[in-house]
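If you are new to this repository, start here. Below is one unmodified record pulled from the training split, so you can see the exact layout before writing a loader.
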Amino acid sequence: DGICGVGLEEAVKKLQDAGYLSNPSRCPSCGRGNLTDLFRYGKNQDLVGRKCTQWDCRVRFNALNFSRALPDHLGRSFRADQLYAAIKMYTDSGVARPPTPAEAGKTLGLSSKGPRRLFAALLEKEAAAGKQLSQRLVLRNEVELDCTSVRTLRIAPRSHAYAGYIEKWLAKHPGERRPQHFLHYVRVLGATQRGTNKLVLRLLPVKLVAQQAKPPVESVDEVLDSGIFNRIAQGTKLYSDGAFAYPAAV
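And here is the target side for that same chain:
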């Protein structure tokens, strides 16, 4: 048995069943011949492949390269059991931090290059699936609304990237001395359905404050313009932390 107690051919079949690898019946090279069942090949018999049965083709393929969901030519970086174990390490982490490519490589006896390509592809697929789910998610029954700052950036008073926002601040504070630096609190507005893991997030627009100032409270316009109420069903009970914006926006 290989890593995780799974043999090479069994690892390929598990990855096929899970949708990570495809299982074509026709040769992708000539399009005429059927493909053989899985077999081992290579100097150490540690590769799993399939071969075209057409007499004038006979092309051999690494079974790990039959995939639309994973990076090309993964068979050059992984054995079948290593690929299965790497994907299992990533997916078993759930919402926790997945292993780094270096950590996975050390565990599997590989360099970090293969796991890095694999994990980047899995993260991209995960993000796309999350975005698709978020686009059709509707919260209902009892929903809590809140806003928080997830990061604080220190902005130089002569920053070109934030020049427009700095001008807005100066226009709202005529006669005040320009601060030594500004703060950009990256604010996220969230709505979650009680008793579930359903969550809708919206990034609020940039609003600079002077140094040492607290995060700006979300305004009525910011809450309405975020579109978060489009993802909440009518008749839903809304709960907030008492911020003024929510009663005024509902």
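Two things worth knowing about this chain: Residues 165 and 186 are 14 Å apart (CA to CA). Residues 3-134 form one domain.
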